[in-house]
Amino acid sequence: MVRVYQMTDSVFLAGLVLSFMSFASIxxxxxxxxxxxxxxxxxxxxxxxxxxxxxxxxxxxSISHHEQVFFWITLLFVxxxxxxxxxxxxxxFALLPIIVPKEQYVKANxxxxxxxxxxxxxxxxxGGLLTYAVPFELVVGAAxxxxxxxxxxxxxxxxxxxxxxxxxxxxxxxxxWKDLMMIxxxxxxxxxxxxxxxxxxxxxxxxLLAFTAAVLHETEVWWGMFNASYFIGAIVGSVIAIRFSxxxxxxxxxxxxxxxxxxxxxxxxxxxxxIPFLCALACAAMGPFYQVRDICQETMLQEVIPxxxxxxxxxxxxxxxxxxxxxxxxIMGLVADAAGAKTAFIAAAALYIMAFFIALAxxxxxxxxxxxxx
Length: 374
Prior knowledge:
This protein has 18 helices and no strands. The protein is an all-alpha fold and 374 residues long. The protein has two domains: 2-155; 173-366, MFS general substrate transporter like domains (Growth Hormone, Chain: A). The longest helix is centred in the C-terminal third of the chain and has 30 residues, at 310-339.
């Protein structure tokens, strides 16, 4: 995206990179199940990262040419890169319940979430710094090496292929989308995710920067502190989920509902507080509740979705949420431009409250209990 913007000086053309990534995720959702059924988890997980390394090389080569035709070739490689990457999350989601005992789902998801947050925190900051300070070719070379290392690491993961038999379903695409809409807990969590993705987009760098400057009348220093405090809170939330996994396993429904309510309250606190330090505390407090809620939701989905439908349903869910996440930034950006950044945060709090009432109305989610493992 940085390279395209530097070459074209066009926000629209740089934004096409995200659009092509979203299109690829939707297209991949229709073939994830048969590919996993035919190749198996290990080959798909390792192969997805190795393919991403290959397409990164091709993207780097094509973007180094300034002719217009190479720009569209680059977008084609972006599509292929994202298409390969779309296999990773559904496969990981379906694989974890196979290699981890049921009573450790929350702890395992917490460990994965913790590692993700640590590397996201370091990755975004380090990536931005490297993009600014280091030649483009070295940044791309580092990314290629990391994809290869990830693929090689996954290839040595020991998986009993007999255990995975029947986990990649043979159901039709139509049946998978029907299941996504008909299983109450899956449907409601998907709807809540859509509302909370729209609410969460208010924390994007642009709107947060506008709030810091226009409402708090502070500099970019506090803007950076707000971002950092949230990520620190998210890491703390993953640690809490690991430490108190037994409690969360027994009360997943209540935890999800309570976290939605608290996030609404903290967003309102942030939007009305005139003191930057209190805003930073609200950001830090958001992290644990957001992270614990996500971990409980993922664990609940792993339990309620039949094992032979996990891959397909998660692929369909991602096909909805991936492009929707891209749209949410535009929606909240328009709200912030039209009514101000403070109004955007108040609207986000209202969306969190809507998610809270959806969860409260779903009695199966409210009183959900983890079934004992056979």
